[in-house]
Amino acid sequence: MLVTSTAALAYTPLFALPTGGQLLGAETDRVLYQAESGGPVVMRQLSTGTEVTLEQSAAIQYVRGWRLDAGRVVAFGSGQDCAPSYCVYLWNSAGTITNLTPRAPSASVIYHQHPVRLVGCFSFSREIYRR
User: Does position 115 have pLDDT exceeding 60, yes or no?
Assistant: First the structure.
Protein backbone atom coordinates (compact mmCIF):
# COMPACT_ATOMS: atom_id res chain seq x y z
CA MET A 1 0.00 0.00 0.00
CA LEU A 2 1.24 3.47 -0.87
CA VAL A 3 -0.12 6.57 0.85
CA THR A 4 0.65 10.04 -0.53
CA SER A 5 -0.45 13.52 0.46
CA THR A 6 -1.67 14.27 -3.08
CA ALA A 7 -2.58 12.21 -6.14
CA ALA A 8 0.24 13.92 -8.05
CA LEU A 9 2.77 12.07 -5.88
CA ALA A 10 1.34 8.63 -6.65
CA TYR A 11 3.07 6.55 -9.29
CA THR A 12 2.00 3.82 -11.65
CA PRO A 13 4.07 0.63 -11.30
CA LEU A 14 6.04 -0.44 -14.38
CA PHE A 15 5.28 -4.09 -13.75
CA ALA A 16 3.51 -6.30 -11.22
CA LEU A 17 4.35 -9.97 -10.77
CA PRO A 18 1.45 -12.31 -11.50
CA THR A 19 -0.22 -13.83 -8.43
CA GLY A 20 2.03 -16.65 -7.25
CA GLY A 21 4.91 -15.36 -9.39
CA GLN A 22 8.51 -15.43 -8.21
CA LEU A 23 11.13 -12.75 -8.85
CA LEU A 24 14.42 -14.47 -9.76
CA GLY A 25 16.63 -11.50 -10.62
CA ALA A 26 16.82 -7.89 -11.74
CA GLU A 27 19.26 -5.51 -13.39
CA THR A 28 18.82 -1.95 -14.67
CA ASP A 29 15.54 -2.12 -16.61
CA ARG A 30 15.17 -5.93 -16.78
CA VAL A 31 13.52 -8.39 -14.42
CA LEU A 32 13.65 -12.17 -14.47
CA TYR A 33 10.60 -13.98 -13.14
CA GLN A 34 8.64 -17.20 -13.14
CA ALA A 35 4.87 -16.68 -13.34
CA GLU A 36 4.03 -20.05 -11.79
CA SER A 37 5.99 -22.80 -10.07
CA GLY A 38 7.42 -25.17 -12.68
CA GLY A 39 6.53 -22.83 -15.54
CA PRO A 40 8.91 -21.12 -17.94
CA VAL A 41 11.16 -18.27 -16.85
CA VAL A 42 10.58 -14.90 -18.48
CA MET A 43 12.92 -11.91 -18.92
CA ARG A 44 11.01 -8.62 -19.14
CA GLN A 45 12.45 -5.29 -20.23
CA LEU A 46 10.61 -2.70 -18.16
CA SER A 47 11.29 0.32 -20.39
CA THR A 48 9.64 -1.31 -23.44
CA GLY A 49 7.35 -3.88 -21.82
CA THR A 50 8.77 -6.64 -24.05
CA GLU A 51 9.11 -10.15 -22.70
CA VAL A 52 11.26 -13.09 -23.77
CA THR A 53 10.52 -16.62 -22.58
CA LEU A 54 13.73 -18.52 -21.86
CA GLU A 55 13.97 -21.61 -24.04
CA GLN A 56 13.68 -24.94 -22.12
CA SER A 57 13.70 -23.13 -18.74
CA ALA A 58 10.71 -25.14 -17.50
CA ALA A 59 12.31 -28.46 -18.51
CA ILE A 60 15.50 -28.11 -16.44
CA GLN A 61 15.17 -29.89 -13.10
CA TYR A 62 16.52 -28.51 -9.82
CA VAL A 63 17.39 -25.23 -11.54
CA ARG A 64 18.78 -22.49 -9.30
CA GLY A 65 21.52 -19.89 -9.11
CA TRP A 66 19.76 -17.51 -11.53
CA ARG A 67 21.93 -14.56 -12.60
CA LEU A 68 20.92 -11.75 -14.95
CA ASP A 69 23.67 -9.65 -16.48
CA ALA A 70 23.85 -7.48 -19.59
CA GLY A 71 20.67 -9.01 -20.98
CA ARG A 72 21.93 -12.56 -20.59
CA VAL A 73 20.82 -15.13 -18.04
CA VAL A 74 22.84 -17.88 -16.35
CA ALA A 75 21.59 -20.70 -14.11
CA PHE A 76 22.56 -24.25 -13.21
CA GLY A 77 20.44 -27.37 -13.07
CA SER A 78 19.90 -30.83 -14.47
CA GLY A 79 18.61 -30.71 -18.04
CA GLN A 80 18.02 -33.64 -20.39
CA ASP A 81 21.46 -33.05 -21.93
CA CYS A 82 23.13 -33.29 -18.55
CA ALA A 83 21.28 -35.69 -16.22
CA PRO A 84 22.06 -36.98 -13.67
CA SER A 85 24.67 -34.28 -13.12
CA TYR A 86 24.34 -30.49 -13.08
CA CYS A 87 25.18 -28.22 -15.99
CA VAL A 88 25.47 -24.46 -16.36
CA TYR A 89 23.16 -22.86 -18.90
CA LEU A 90 23.35 -19.47 -20.62
CA TRP A 91 20.41 -17.75 -22.33
CA ASN A 92 21.06 -14.84 -24.68
CA SER A 93 18.83 -11.78 -24.93
CA ALA A 94 16.62 -13.61 -27.47
CA GLY A 95 16.01 -16.46 -24.98
CA THR A 96 18.11 -19.07 -26.80
CA ILE A 97 19.80 -21.58 -24.49
CA THR A 98 23.44 -22.77 -24.55
CA ASN A 99 24.92 -25.44 -22.28
CA LEU A 100 28.25 -24.08 -21.02
CA THR A 101 29.34 -27.28 -19.29
CA PRO A 102 31.94 -29.50 -20.98
CA ARG A 103 30.50 -32.42 -22.95
CA ALA A 104 31.30 -34.95 -20.21
CA PRO A 105 30.23 -33.27 -16.96
CA SER A 106 32.08 -34.57 -13.94
CA ALA A 107 30.26 -36.56 -11.30
CA SER A 108 31.19 -33.83 -8.83
CA VAL A 109 28.64 -31.08 -9.36
CA ILE A 110 30.32 -28.49 -7.14
CA TYR A 111 32.33 -27.13 -10.07
CA HIS A 112 29.21 -26.30 -12.08
CA GLN A 113 27.43 -24.17 -9.51
CA HIS A 114 27.22 -20.53 -8.45
CA PRO A 115 27.90 -18.74 -11.74
CA VAL A 116 29.61 -15.35 -11.64
CA ARG A 117 29.96 -13.22 -14.77
CA LEU A 118 33.39 -11.77 -15.38
CA VAL A 119 34.38 -9.53 -18.29
CA GLY A 120 33.91 -11.69 -21.40
CA CYS A 121 33.52 -14.96 -19.52
CA PHE A 122 31.71 -16.76 -16.71
CA SER A 123 33.22 -18.45 -13.68
CA PHE A 124 31.56 -21.37 -11.88
CA SER A 125 33.23 -22.19 -8.58
CA ARG A 126 36.73 -22.73 -10.01
CA GLU A 127 36.20 -23.22 -13.74
CA ILE A 128 36.08 -20.38 -16.27
CA TYR A 129 34.18 -20.56 -19.57
CA ARG A 130 34.67 -17.95 -22.29
CA ARG A 131 31.47 -16.94 -24.18
Answer: no
